[in-house]
From TrEMBL:
Keywords: Chaperone, Leucine-rich repeat, Nucleus, Phosphoprotein, Repeat, Signal. It comes from Microtus ochrogaster. The keyword Transport does not apply. Residues 177-282 have a biased composition (Acidic residues). The keyword Transcription does not apply. One of its GO terms (molecular function) is histone binding. It comes from the Eukaryota. This is Acidic leucine-rich nuclear phosphoprotein 32 family member. Residues 1-24 form the signal peptide.
Amino acid sequence: MNSNASPSTNLVVLVIEWLDVVLFTSQVRELVLDNCKANDGKIEGLTDEFVNLEFLSLISVGLFSVSDLPKLPKLKKLELSDNRIFGGLDRLAEELPSLTHLNLSGNKLKDISTLEPLVDLFIMAYAELRTSTPYTEKKLDCLKSLDLFGCEVTNLNDYRESVFKLLPQLSYLDGYDREDQEAPDSDVEVDGVEEAPDSDAEVDGVDKEEEDEEGEDEEEEEDEDGEEEEDDEEEDEDEDEDVEGEDDEDEVSGEEEEFGHDGEVDEDEEDEDEDEDEEEEESGKGEKRKRETDDEGEDD
């Protein structure tokens, strides 16, 4: 793929090789060509090279029939609303054998008989299923959803009963089943082709995730608070133990001081007693000597 640009006019000339086109078209799975006007019943560029195409939208392109649609073997959903199609639906079974969803709203379909070719979609799907191995888990891929809003055929008496009778494999007609129950949102998915979800669903999902995250954060905060409280209690207990230990030490030291002080007092008292005893002994000895001297004087 080569490109040349002219700086003077800002014109970009894109040269595409044939191999590039083939590789590109074979990888496309969804293609929207709404409002691209058809030329003689054909859409330019829409060819059978889109071999893996699963979703095709041709809304309001001016088609009168589907006879010129290319063969698209993997196409599952086809949007053809707001065209001028009045018949020729027999080509759908031949060119689109895997079709499961068909929207023909706002076209020129007047009779139930114009829908009879759609029966072939079921027949071909059933035949393909029978040719597969007996133990296959493959489901019957046939037309399940048909929309005919705005078509004249919807004004017929017993319209819904007639269509369901003609197409017994059909699950939903104009968005409702046989019991007038609306098709669930899950029916929007078409075997790998999924339409964009509703914004409300996205918001709900985001809100739920945010709530889960907030709940986790609150639990973590509660756990942290509990751990902090436990740590504070342990610190308080340690401080109390330290204070009690200091009090015990103070009591012991006080007793020791008192004991030491008493010991010193006792020693001083003992020393004083000894001194008094010595003085008494000396005074006694002096008196004894005095008496002896007096006795000797009397003898003389």
